[in-house]
Amino acid sequence: MLALEMYRSLPRHLAGRALNGRSGGLALAGRVPGIVSAYASPLRLVTRDEPSVRRAGWARLRTRLSGICGSDLGALSGSTSLYFSALVSLPFVPGHEVVAELLEDCAELPAGTRVVVDPVLTCAARGVEPCPACSTGRTNRCERITVGHLSPGLQTGFCHDTGGGWGQFLRAHRSQLHPVPDELPDEQAVLTEPTACAVHTALRARVPVNGRVLVSGAGPVGLLTTLALRALTPAGEITVVAKHPRQRELARLCGATEVVTPREVLRRVRRATGAFQVRPEFASPYLLGGVDVAIDAVGSRRSLESVLHATRAGGRVVLSGMPAAGDLSAVWFRELEVTGSYASAQREEYADGSDQHGPVQQDGQRGAFALAGELVRDEAVREMAQSIASYPLHRWREALDHAGGAGGLGTVKVAFDPRSTR
Amino acid sequence: MSRPGFVLEVDDRTPPMLVHEGEGFRLESFPLGSRVIYPPESLPAIDDVDEAITEALLHPVDADPLPSQLRAGMRLTIAFDDVSLPLPPMRSPDIRQRIIEAVLTMAADAGIDDVELIAANALHRRMTDAELRHVVGERVFRSFHPQGLLTNHDAEDRENLLHVGLTEEGEDVEINRRAAESDLLVYVNINLVPMDGGHKSVPVGLASYRSLRHHHNVRTMVGSHSFMDHERSHLHHSAWRMGRLLAEHLNIFQIETTLDNNVFGARYGFLQKPEWEWSLRDQASMLAMRRGLALAPQRLKHRRFHDLRSAYGLTGIHAGRVEAVHERTIAAVHRQQLVEVQGQSDVLVMGVPFLGPYNVDSTMNPILATCMGLGYYFNSYRGRPVVRRGGAAILYHPLAPQFNQLHHPSYVDFYEEILSETTDPLVIEEKYEKQFATDPWYIHLYRTSHAYHGVHPFYMWYWAAHAMDHVDDVIWVGADRRAAQRLGFRAATTLADALEMASATVGSDPSITYLHNPPHLIADVR
Questions:
Q1: Positive or negative torsion for Cα A69, A71, A74, A78
Q2: By CB distance 3.0 to 4.6 Å, which of A99, A219, A247, A363 could disulfide with A189?
Q3: Over the stretch A358-386, which tens digit does the pLDDT of each residue have?
Q4: What is the ipTM of this complex?
Q5: Domain assignment of residue A162, given as a range
Q6: pTM tops 0.80
Q7: Contact B416 A274 (CB under 8 A)
């Protein structure tokens, strides 16, 4: 089959880190299109064997559409922390935002069913006894992601054995599959996985009633998180930090009360909350006071510091994007509750600690994908889906460049369609 | 005998006119037939200032001589106009210093120990120590400031405010407690323009937001025709009601001074002379200044203008009961500034200079430029506005969207947040004024730093409300287009372009009047 394969290449990894500004490098990656995709990405288009997991509960799928996520770009540009190197098995086919169709029956799902994939490779998928996290439905916290009958891999798209969405075929376990209603187009369905992550983030935010929330970033993660916050939490004012005009429009559509530019964020939050602003020496200003909850949906140092600096003492900061290093003084001094939000869980926890709220689907699921399945029907997601750009696999360099500058180009998501040849 | 102000009609022999535009100026050729209003030349100044001061204090109007009002054991407070007057600042010694020294001498002779001095800065920024020293002089500063007896008024210090009562219109009168509880309040004023002084001194300069909001609002400003004419200014009517209430509770001894039009001094004499009278030296100065400004970096240019100290001459000093004193003061201001103008025109042209009351040693941001042009200059009339209703205003200023973070923190938010949503003064007042006025951070900066109060940019916008209501088109020549757009106006590169743009409003052959100020002038439109 034809697939894009991420492989081990120390020179390219180092080049990516240097160009990306890590290790005191040049920070050119985001500014010069083509430089990472052409010279510094350990990615190649290959013809390789189909993935070969042949156990009960697993099925073969054909990819219809697979999105390029920020974490994919991070891995390819070398900006992802080496922390994750123990949790992947190279070479692998990336792609964890997947809409696919079953090529064979899988439990009660007949061949031909269109599905979206929950990429987390849990104990059920690995064929091991459920770990404490999986047994309570907190599948994103699975503690067995390096064992079982699969190679290490935190998700589909990072595991050698399963394949990923950036190939023509992949394999997935029944526990990962969520059927897609016929009326939902692929472009909307491919946003289900990021929406599930957004649902998880929104619920992890534990927003107090009428709480003021700051969402830093208006890429797909930020936009969908805004949507989920508005739909699933009692948030009051939601301020979204957006760089580009199209992002600003979509943020409002997703339920933002106010949309500000990165330059304005501190000033606007200060004004809205009556906080005091102080300016330390040789460092950026911060607030004494601020929002109740802030969500970093970018994962850059600037964004991290922006949310830490704009959150009131005792407030909550959720790291939704893969985090960058930053000054954590505010966490200590302001006693911030900093929490991560990784992927999504099969059973989500609500602000009051229960798991008994939210829309309940017919099958009784109350996981993030079930909730996301409702949210992707929203008008805002329909609007976002219209600006998805899809590329065939062989135009992967263009696709990555496009994904790198998607926000400025008015694109919400760039995706691969391995069925396409042009 | 000094030359009175006059109106020139541009003909084919008229040289290009000097037009101020922020920290610079240009020479502009106006269309034939345009009217140019020149301010009067400086009136003769009083030779012996100290003697005039003594005379005023010993022979006040409608009041007992000051020494007879002073007695040992009394509580005396001296309040004085803040850094916003005069413009540019006066070369040392400032007239306020000379008056305050005279009053303090009399107080010492009477054996008064309890004396405090207060800068009547209302919601303006606190004056710096250097500015206070400049205004009151080294001797007074050293005697009072270290003991905390020379202070800025703090309109947010609840404990040190006193609610004196309500006017017959229900307006709160709340002023500085020390001033209100003094046996005698001496107010030392500089009456630069007709808007200043009278009951605008104590009831405004020493007031709180609670009190000021009754007259600093859109309704009042739109209804003041103009606020440079206290008899037809709703703002002043309100201040007068407050002043009369205060007079029932408080003994105020008002000292008002008037200055001549010597704004730029000999060094920049060409800036206050008709262009056709420029000597070779004037022309050389003008060319050298233009060249220097063109080459100088922004910081140097800024310093060159803001370091200017004017050698004003004193044209009058009156002391005594507020209203009686102010009548004489206004007459003196009018003698110096009034210019008779026959009829209105379709277009009013104004050059906004580098300095207004609220950017002393600071930046004239777009909101302040608007206030200066559409507020102060537009309202520099008596009778009727110089431009007809539905006409066009053309102003010169770069409108660079630059803000002094120390002085104008709330202006940045006003510009970025409020004006991007609406420029309608009524909507702005209704929706946002209270938020800004009560914002604890702005209040903190006003009280402890040198920031204008959070509500101040609103007042600047209201100041321009009458003009915005009166004209149908506002065009800024040489302005930053995005800034002009943010303010709800348009920008043009040249006067010809501006007139072309305004032709939809005033036709292709409009009558044009250019206000050739500073120095200050009041157009007495018949």
A1: negative
A2: A99
A3: 443 333 347 899 999 999 999 999 999 99
A4: 0.76
A5: 2-180+385-416
A6: yes
A7: no
